[in-house]
Specification:
Blueprint: H1 5-22, H2 32-41, H3 48-55, H4 59-62, H5 66-98, H6 102-129, H7 137-163, H8 172-203
Helix pairs in contact: 1-5, 3-8, 5-6, 5-8, 6-7, 7-8
Length: 204
């Protein structure tokens, strides 16, 4: 699915302002008890230090609630992938104008495409999680399975981006793009792990 990244970026930034003022609130200095909960919960993720660093300032909203923690983690992943996709789009435009390395240019263009798909999938997950309090029983398990599917697909698309550079000669542009997308993969992986963990508690 082709995504108009500039439109998605505008929509997301507008949504982020609203979320910051109405849902999560401004990040504040968390208490020790709250951060202990987040640090412990992050142990289910593949990148616990990244998890703690990106989520600890939202502890006032999370309030020891695994559902809210998964929701914030998806919000963080969406913010990161949108910012990175916008950056890679700009790199792609520069590559088209200045670079004769067609293999590198093709890898960057493919990356733009799959990151657009990842934005779409994480956005759907984010929207679905906003209705978390309206679900119960079998419905919540079904809706969470959709979120798990979308977040897993988003992670696969992000991995496809970096895999596309395997045959590209090492250089500054390749290193820059891959490093940024690797960081996005970490927060997306963590969000998926936290959704999975929450789904397990609901099933139990």
């Amino acid at each position: 699915m082709e995504i108009q990244l500039s439109t998605m970026l505008f929509f997301f930034l507008s949504t982020t302002v609203l979320l910051a003022s109405t849902t999560f609130g401004q990040p504040i200095e968390p208490s020790s008890n709250e951060t202990d909960y987040i640090r412990t919960s992050c142990n289910v993720t593949r990148y616990p230090e990244t998890c703690f660093a990106t989520l600890s300032n939202y502890s006032d909203y999370i309030q020891h609630d695994p559902g809210r923690m998964a929701k914030v983690a998806i919000h963080v992943a969406l913010s990161n992938v949108t910012h990175t996709a916008n950056y890679v789009t700009n790199i792609s435009q520069l590559a088209d104008a200045n670079n004769n390395n067609t293999r590198e240019s093709a890898a960057i263009e493919d990356c733009v495409s799959v990151l657009g798909d990842a934005i779409d999938e994480i956005h759907k997950s984010n929207r679905q999680m906003k209705h978390l309090g309206n679900w119960s029983g079998e419905l919540i398990r079904f809706e969470l399975s959709n979120v798990q599917t979308w977040m897993s697909a988003a992670l696969t698309n992000e991995e496809t981006c970096t895999d596309g550079f395997d045959e590209v000669v090492d250089g500054d542009m390749k290193a820059d793009v891959c490093a940024r997308v690797d960081a996005v993969k970490e927060v997306t992986s963590n969000a998926l792990a936290l959704v999975n963990s929450y789904a397990d508690t609901v099933s139990a």
